[in-house]
Design a protein that fits this description.
This is Ribosomal RNA small subunit methyltransferase I. The chain has 293 residues and is an alpha/beta fold. It has eleven helices and ten strands.
C-alpha cells in the first residue's frame, strides 16, 4: 500500500495526475485521493482507473464530474460542500489542473467563499517538455492551445514573436502540422524548436530542429498523442555598427548613459553590456570635449 489515510482540513485540493506513466504520481497526491471526502474529476473514468491502479479504495465516496462544460451550479455545489466542512480533491484527466485544463473558475468560487484552496503539485506536460527540448529554460511563456483557425493562430503567435523567452504550446496531433506551418510563417524558418510527443509513455518522441526542418519532417506523418511544441527565443539580430551608433547618439541626447544603453539594447535585441560600453565611451568623449584626452 503506497498511500495513507490522513486527516484533511475542509477545502479544495488541486491534485496533479500523471500525463502518461501511472507511477508518475506523488505519494501526497495518493494520500489526498485516499482521504478526501469527495472526489471531483475532469474525467471520472480516468480517475477511477488511476485509483484502481494504485489500490486506492473509493468506498462509498462520491465521484463528481467537473469539466470545461460544467456550469456555475456545479461550482456552487462543490463550494458548498467545502463550506460545510468537507474535503474535496479535484483532478484533471492528466497533468496539473488549470494548466490548459479546467479548474480556474472552481478554485476561484471556493476561495471567494473563504474556503481553503491548496495544491498537491506534480506532473505537467509543459514542464516535462521544457526539460527535454534542449532550449533555454530561464524564461518561458506558456501559450496553451493555439486557436484552431490559421488567421487567429498567426495573430496569437505574432503577439509573442519578439518575447525574449522560450515559447511552449500544446496541440492536438490533428493540427500540429498546421501549427508548425504558421510558426514558420510568423517566426521564420530558423527559430530552434522541439516537438515533444507521448511524454512519459512507451513511444515518447522528442524531435529537435529549426522550425522549417521540423515542419518538413512531420509533413507526411500521421501523429498520435498530445503534442507539446517548444520554440526557442529570438536570436540576436544582425545590426550594423553604424546603425547602432547613430541610434545610441540620439538616445544619449535625452537619456543617461545607463538608460540610453538599456533602451537601444531592447530596441535592437543586442546585448545590453555591449551597448553600455559603447555609451560609456561616447559619454567620456563628450565630457572631454574637442581636443580632450
Amino acid at each position: 500500500m503506497n498511500y495513507q489515510i490522513v486527516p484533511l482540513q475542509p477545502g479544495l485540493y488541486i491534485v496533479a495526475t500523471p500525463i502518461g506513466t501511472a507511477r508518475d504520481i506523488t505519494l501526497r497526491a495518493l494520500d489526498i485521493l485516499a482521504s478526501a471526502d469527495i472526489l471531483v474529476a475532469e474525467d471520472t473514468r480516468s480517475l477511477k482507473k488511476l485509483l484502481a491502479i494504485h489500490g486506492v479504495p473509493l468506498g462509498e465516496r462520491p465521484v463528481w464530474a467537473y469539466h470545461d462544460h460544467s456550469d456555475a451550479g456545479a461550482r456552487g455545489s462543490i463550494a458548498a460542500e467545502v463550506a460545510a466542512g468537507r474535503s474535496v480533491a479535484y483532478a484533471s484527466e492528466a497533468g496539473t489542473p488549470m494548466v490548459s485544463d479546467p479548474g480556474f473558475d472552481l478554485a476561484r468560487a471556493v476561495s471567494e467563499k473563504g474556503g481553503l484552496v491548496t495544491s498537491a503539485p506534480g506532473p505537467s506536460a509543459a514542464i516535462a517538455a521544457l526539460t527535454l527540448a534542449g532550449l533555454p529554460t530561464d524564461k518561458f511563456a506558456f501559450l496553451g492551445f493555439a486557436p484552431p483557425k490559421s488567421a487567429a493562430r498567426q495573430k496569437a503567435i505574432a503577439a509573442f514573436a519578439e518575447t525574449p523567452a522560450t515559447l511552449v504550446l500544446y496541440e492536438s496531433p490533428r493540427r500540429v502540422q498546421a501549427l508548425l506551418a504558421d510558426l514558420v510563417t510568423v517566426l521564420g524558418p530558423d527559430r530552434e524548436a522541439a516537438l515533444c510527443r507521448e511524454l512519459t509513455k512507451r513511444f515518447e518522441e522528442i524531435l529537435r530542429a529549426p522550425l522549417a526542418e521540423l515542419s518538413h519532417a512531420l509533413s507526411d506523418r500521421t501523429l498520435k498523442g498530445e503534442c507539446v511544441i517548444v520554440v526557442g527565443p529570438p536570436g540576436v539580430r544582425e545590426v550594423s555598427e553604424g546603425t547602432l551608433s547613430a541610434a545610441l547618439d540620439t538616445a544619449l541626447e535625452t537619456h543617461s548613459v545607463k538608460d540610453a544603453a538599456a533602451q537601444i539594447a531592447e530596441a535592437f535585441g543586442v546585448p545590453r553590456k555591449q551597448v553600455y560600453q559603447m555609451a560609456l565611451l561616447r559619454g567620456k568623449n563628450r565630457e572631454a570635449g574637442p581636443g580632450g584626452d
